[in-house]
Amino acid sequence: MMWPLLLFIVIFYFLLIRPQKKRQKQHQDMLNSIKRGDQVVTAGGIFGTVRDVKDDSFIIEVSDGVKIRVLKNAISMKRGGGEAGEATAG
């Protein structure tokens, strides 16, 4: 009687919980690898270059002389590093 329930729990774990934990670990590893000069994209779609790394946030330059502070968890992806690859807007 309990076998179908146990089977459902195991399937649920391998299809939903385990992949989510893997994605969370990959995101945390990506956040830990971000350093000054890296290009990033925030969850809101703002592109910028990391100018300073704080304990729980980054200072990102989004345009010449325009800097914003964002929480580390607000970074959705890293686009590469360095000033040379920075694209100009407009």
From TrEMBL:
Q: Which gene encodes it?
A: yajC
Please tell me the species this chain comes from. Acetomicrobium hydrogeniformans
Q: What is this protein called?
A: Preprotein translocase subunit YajC
Provide the primary localization: membrane
List this protein's GO terms for biological process: protein transport
Q: Which InterPro entries match?
A: Preprotein_translocase_YajC (IPR003849)
Keywords (A to Z) from UniProt:
Cell membrane, Membrane, Protein transport, Translocation, Transmembrane, Transmembrane helix, Transport
Membrane topology recorded in Swiss-Prot or TrEMBL: Single-pass membrane protein
Annotated localization: Cell membrane
Example of a GO cellular component annotation carried by this entry: plasma membrane
- Any keyword Transferase? no
Q: Which residues cross the membrane?
A: none
Say which family it is in: Belongs to the YajC family.
